[in-house]
């Protein structure tokens, strides 16, 4: 994982209390749960787009999409408190709030995507979507992008090349390059579609058939490639013409993050078969969704049993309902569009004078800054320095891409114009400091 803390080298800059907490954490949790940053952040409180550590230091959060409507959102917290004082159980009982939320949630999707299955996470939603695609087509083969991440189940781990070579892919998976708008320009969408067709043909040649294209519609872990609207439309058409289903993974781009549309696939085409989401839907509580047509949902149900104890539990539904209320009442889609354009414009201006910046791209509040390879350091090394230096200035981002060379800027949807000004002011100062240091250890 990019931007992963190395537990073998606890930094001396950590306080004695934090070093003790780190030791206790490793003693009971082990190293299976990675921490961020060379110097981990001990978070104790949040509000809006701000976090505070145990020493009272304030951080500007330009990374976290799970609390989509802001950390410790009062409306979400009160909705959950109220529900927990009434009842919280599974979906095998009639419950008004679950049905009412499902109706509202489906109304944000195109006509024809008229059923929703609730899960605990995006991983579970993607797992079920792939299983349904394989059942519906009678084929096994799934196409994913080269550095994709789609989840943690055994099925999804084998569909997530970002995990690295020590976690092998399933033999019925084919990887294709993401539509790289930086290197392929306006032909990126066509190149991508041609790659999907070639992968489908290879799957058929090996007797596996082509079941689905599973794609994160912002290509986040591949390096963030929003492209112009319509970038993915040709690949969606190619998938269907080749006999596969299109599964749009909306865990990262969904819920209005890209500005103007609720879902990332809507920037390109409504021509998909299933859409999944998870992380941002309930303000930090576990929830996942699979949205699909009646024909797929009810057809699969006739031959298969699916039950998820906590999927769609009333407390998570209460939180998700409050999140939708916040998005609508505070017009957060428009905020993502306006504030995202402000961020993108200013970062593009800053990059113009930077020899270590190769490209700036984004849509709404999802922006990637690709660092350039130079004679002294590759883009990944520059990116890691930027992430660490920003963390030292108490601004939080991360990095993605095959070499960790793309800065990932993805703040909560409540990130406003003042936050954007503060972010870009600090970013400009940090970039100047990092590039002036040159290729020093």
From TrEMBL:
Coiled coil: none annotated. Pfam families: Aminotran_3. Keywords: Aminotransferase, Pyridoxal phosphate, Transferase. This is Aminotransferase class III-fold pyridoxal phosphate-dependent enzyme. Belongs to the class-III pyridoxal-phosphate-dependent aminotransferase family. CDD domains: OAT_like. One of its GO terms (molecular function) is transaminase activity.
């Amino acid at each position: 994982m990019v931007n992963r803390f190395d537990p073998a080298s606890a930094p001396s800059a950590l306080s004695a209390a934090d070093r003790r907490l780190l030791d206790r954490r490793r003693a009971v949790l082990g190293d299976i749960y990675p921490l961020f940053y060379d110097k981990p952040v001990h978070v104790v409180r949040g509000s809006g787009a701000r976090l505070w550590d145990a020493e009272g230091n304030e951080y500007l959060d330009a990374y976290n999409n799970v609390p989509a409507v802001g950390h410790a959102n009062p409306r979400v917290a009160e909705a959950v408190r109220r529900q927990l004082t009434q009842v919280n159980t599974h979906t095998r009982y009639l419950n008004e709030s679950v049905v009412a939320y499902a109706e509202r949630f489906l109304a944000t999707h195109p006509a024809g995507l008229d059923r929703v299955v609730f899960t605990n996470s995006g991983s579970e939603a993607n797992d079920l979507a792939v299983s349904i695609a394989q059942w519906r087509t009678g084929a096994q083969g799934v196409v994913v992008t080269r550095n994709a991440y789609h989840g943690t189940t055994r099925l999804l781990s084998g569909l997530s090349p970002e995990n690295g070579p020590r976690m092998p892919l399933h033999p019925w998976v084919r990887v294709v390059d993401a539509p790289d708008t930086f290197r392929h320009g306006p032909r990126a969408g066509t190149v991508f579609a041609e790659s999907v067709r070639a992968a489908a043909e290879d799957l058929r040649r090996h007797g596996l058939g082509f079941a689905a294209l599973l794609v994160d519609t912002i290509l986040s872990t591949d390096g963030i490639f929003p492209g112009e609207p319509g970038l993915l439309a040709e690949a969606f058409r190619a998938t269907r013409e080749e006999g596969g289903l299109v599964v749009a993974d909306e865990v990262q781009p969904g819920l209005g993050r890209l500005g103007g549309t609720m879902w990332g696939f809507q920037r390109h085409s409504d021509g998909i078969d299933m859409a999944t989401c998870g992380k941002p839907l309930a303000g930090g509580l576990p929830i996942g969704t699979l949205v699909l047509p009646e024909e797929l949902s009810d057809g699969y149900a006739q031959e298969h049993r699916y039950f998820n104890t906590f999927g769609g539990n009333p407390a998570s539904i209460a939180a998700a309902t409050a999140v939708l209320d916040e998005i609508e009442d505070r017009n957060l889609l428009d905020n993502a569009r306006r504030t995202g354009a402000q961020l993108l414009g200013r970062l593009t201006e800053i990059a113009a004078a930077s020899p270590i910046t190769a490209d700036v791209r984004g849509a709404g509040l999802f922006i990637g800054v690709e660092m350039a390879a130079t004679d002294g350091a590759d883009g990944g090394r520059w990116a890691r320095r930027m992430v660490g230096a920003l963390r030292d200035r108490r601004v939080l981002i991360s990095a993605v891409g095959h070499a960790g060379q793309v800065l990932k800027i993805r703040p909560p949807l409540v990130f406003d114009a003042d936050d954007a000004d503060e972010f870009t002011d600090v970013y400009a100062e940090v970039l100047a400091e990092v590039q002036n240091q040159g290729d020093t250890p």
